[in-house]
Known about the structure:
- With about 160 residues, the chain is α/β, with parallel strands linked by helices.
- The protein has 4 helices and 8 strands, in the order αβββββαβαβαβ.
- It has helices at about 1-25, 85-100, 120-130, 140-145, and strands spanning about 25-30, 35-40, 55, 60-65, 70-80, 105-110, 135, 155.
- The protein has a 6-stranded mixed β-sheet, covered by helices on one side. The chain has a two-stranded antiparallel ribbon with strand order 1-2.
- The protein is globular, with a radius of gyration of 18 Å.
Amino acid sequence: MKKYLAIVVLIGLVVWGLYDVGTKSYSAELPTKAGQEQQWTVGLEKGNLAPDFELKSIDGTTIKLSSLRGKKLILNMWATWCPPCRQEMPDMEKFYIENKNQRIEILAVNLTQAEKSRNDVPEFIKAYGITFPVIMDEKGDVARLYKVSSIPATFIIDT
């Protein structure tokens, strides 16, 4: 009986946690073309402003998501050991090469905390000939911010 009660309590906590995380949102003010401020809801729903973050690339360059505003963006979260991630990378690279002059960007977020070794990432990038920016989510903060539960996870962020 105690075992079933513990399972019910655990399920209840998980459901509450998912509900609680999903109901939080905030707003941001962004200048419009006319110089007026406009309120945007920040979140993951269609029509929301994508949650901003800042991470470093392998070479130490800092990239902030909001610095890419005005471009269409493919935000991809991945790891080197993930078979579907490995499978999609050549197609993503091909797409990037064909479309990079059309204000379309790819930003690959490596879930570094899930890697066996941080050194696997530059080797992977070299082996796959990746030329689009790859940034390192060392602590998993961006994965949590975007509620990533499995990889690869891809978000299309519009202008």
